[in-house]
Structures are given as structure tokens and as C-alpha cells.
Design goal:
The protein has helices at 2-7, 70-73, and strands spanning 38-47, 55-64. The protein is of the alpha+beta class and 76 residues long. The longest helix is centred in the first third of the chain and has 6 residues, at 2-7. It has a two-stranded antiparallel sheet. The termini are far apart. It is flat.
């Protein structure tokens, strides 16, 4: 299975390439796995005003949709 995943580039390896890259990693190591009620949106913008020195920015928005717990709601 490892070979099949590697052949399709589904193995999670960070490969060298030409130029820059962006890798956003998110994990939940808590016991309650609240990430099932959290929506994540990533917005990547590139300013090409100066094409020789473009500027990129990443905005990550987490929305907690949990209901019924004061602990969850305080993070909304």
C-alpha cells in the first residue's frame, strides 16, 4: 500500500520543487475531537502589484458550530 500511495503522491511527503510552497497543517490532539463541529476556511491572496516581489497572505478562519456547551461557545 505504501508504494501505491507514493505513486499517487498521496503519502503526505513534502517534496522539493522549484520555488516556494505553502503547507497549512491542522490537527486535533484533544480527547473530545471537537474538530467535527469546526469549519475551517483558508483564503490565500497574492498581491502581484510588484511582480518581481509578489506578496502572499493566508487567512485561516475557524468557526465552532458546537451547541450546548459553555466551554465550546466561548471559542465561537
Amino acid at each position: 500500500m505504501t508504494t501505491v500511495l507514493a505513486n499517487h503522491r498521496w503519502d503526505g511527503v513534502v517534496r522539493r520543487g522549484n520555488g516556494d510552497f505553502l503547507m497549512a497543517v491542522d490537527t486535533n490532539v484533544g480527547f473530545n475531537k471537537t474538530n467535527r463541529v469546526v469549519n475551517a476556511i483558508m483564503v490565500y491572496d497574492i498581491d502581484l502589484t510588484k511582480q518581481t516581489t509578489p506578496i502572499g497572505s493566508l487567512t485561516i478562519i475557524h468557526t465552532n458550530n458546537g451547541h450546548g456547551s459553555k466551554d465550546l461557545k466561548k471559542w465561537t
